[in-house]
Amino acid sequence: MTAQLLNIVTGINRVSVPSSGSMILVNDLYGAMPDIHTTFLGRAPVDPVWKTAFDQLITLSTAKRPHGPDFAFYVDELTREVGALIERIQPNAIHAQYLGFALSLAFTRTAGNIPIIAIAHGPDVMMAERSASEREAMNEVAAASAAIVAPTSALADRIDRLTGHRFTDRLTVIPWGIPVSDARVRDQPPTGIGPMSLVHAGRLDGNKSTITAVEALALADQPHHLTVIGEGILRQHLEERAIELGLRKRVHFVPFLPRAELWRRLPNFDAFVFTTRGLEAFGLVLIEAQAHGLPIAYSDLPGVREIVGRAGVPYTPGDPRSLAAALDEMGRDLHRRKALTKAAVDNARRYDITTTGRQLCQLTLRVTS
Fold first, then answer.
1. Which CATH number applies to 6-177+352-368?
2. Which positions ≥6 away from 104 have C-beta within 8 Å?
């Protein structure tokens, strides 16, 4: 693609482990961009396997402080540290992950003539919708960026509104992806009707709305079983609610699993349940489930609808009765489940991480030229 490797600096201001969709994504993404030399700025501790995608990983030393009275001083201190690193590395471009978060602000204030590509992840947009100071920070990063990347047009539209339509021409949609070739579809297609073995994976918080899946089981006509994989502030509440509803034997909770283990288990289930009720940037776990041949029951959100298309069964976000009806329909209709299984695998192939890497690399070449 180019005779000389592009030298990129990026980073996420968290411990450098595969603890979230964003962290897993960047590890996959930069590993899929062989024409780019990547320096990643993160936090200790560092997962030794996870960091292999980056040519260099530097741990930040500035003590992290959340939004509050000391936030401005924290950003100033972080900016000084990042500025010294930028001066030493002299990158061709900066990929600022998350619009308006502290590390992106530090990149913005030290970049000088180095072009910035800002990459939205979802939590940054949610924060900007709730907070004027976060919205101001998002606008500062957007104004300094040569391009702004969002994984769906729905998320791009929200960023466009939050920035007053001043940077519409800088917004680019580059869908996220996964290493599709590593996924394994189960050997046998569905062969019967009746109760299904369902799986849900993700953070257990209010926006992910796992409670919708738990309560749907109590309303469904068929005695489906649900495995909930993940950790979060609502874990105890979800377990208690399952017991209240008489679902102790039908809802099983499993702690957060590394992706390799999650992928090993996915083919053992009949369908995947996606329950987010608010903003969802992309929903990588949807594509992971589809790549393993699982039909999807998904909350009908704009960004999710854009990703899943017709390869899933939608229901009203946050409505357990609507989800229960979708699950029962899927359980009763074997022909539909077989069709959804095939559609899921076909849809997942559209979201290979190599495609994401190629598109981001091409965009980087454009802004640096």
1. 3.40.50.2000
2. 96, 97, 98, 118, 137, 141
What is the CATH code for 180-351? 3.40.50.2000
Q: Provide the 10 A C-beta neighbour count for residue 365.
A: 16
Q: Are 345 and 339 in contact (CB under 8 A)?
A: no
Q: What is the spatial order of strands in the sheet that 6-16 belongs to? A: 56-59, 36-46, 6-16, 93-97, 116-119, 147-150, 171-173
On whether the CB atoms of residues 303 and 155 are closer than 8 A, the answer is: yes
Going through 264-366 in order, the beta strands assigned E by DSSP cover 271-274, 296-299, 313-315
Full-model pTM: 0.91
Q: Look up residue 35 and give its two tokens.
A: 């024409």
Render pLDDT for 81-91 as a digit per residue (tens, 0 to 9): 999 999 999 99
The predicted-structure confidence for 158-210, as pLDDT tens digits, reads as follows 999 999 999 999 999 999 999 999 998 876 666 678 799 999 999 898 889 99
- The Cα–Cα gap between 134 and 122 comes to 13
DSSP 281: S
Per CATH, 6-177+352-368 and 180-351 having the same topology is answered: yes
CA dihedral 356, 360, 362, 365 (to 10 degrees): -160
Query: Domain segments of the chain: what residues?
Result: 6-177+352-368, 180-351
What lies within 8 Å, CB to CB, of 118 at 6+ separation is 96, 99, 104, 141, 142, 145, 147, 148, 149
